[in-house]
Amino acid sequence: MNEQAARAYLLAKPETIKDFPFGEDVEVYKVKGKMFATLSLGKGNEKGTDGKLEGYYCMNLKCDPEEAVMLRDIFDSVIPGYHMNRALWNTVILDGSIPQGEIERMIDNSFKLVVAKMTKKDQQSLLIHLI
Prior knowledge:
Mean pLDDT: 89
Radius of gyration: 14 Å
Distance between the termini: 26 Å
Number of domains: 1
Number of helices: 4
């Protein structure tokens, strides 16, 4: 999955907006004001990443803690969330090594985890888009 496909998939989620609260270099995707993904171009100088991000677009996605560790074990391009709570977020490096369907599943999961923490009213307003 490349960054254009990632953007399109993220923005296709119900009531999703793109915002830039951290500056123009970091795209933040929110549903009803709650962040479920970020997308940015790695510069290679990110502390603790051993330069893995350099030249690649990267997404931060929310994840169940146990699944987060499992995905990191399976995919070299999934690392603990950069600038995020590393137990609950993964950084996915869009280097072509992860099948698009798997990245879409990770995005769907992040979206669902964020929606699950919303009020019942907000959850129901999103459900009408999914029926």
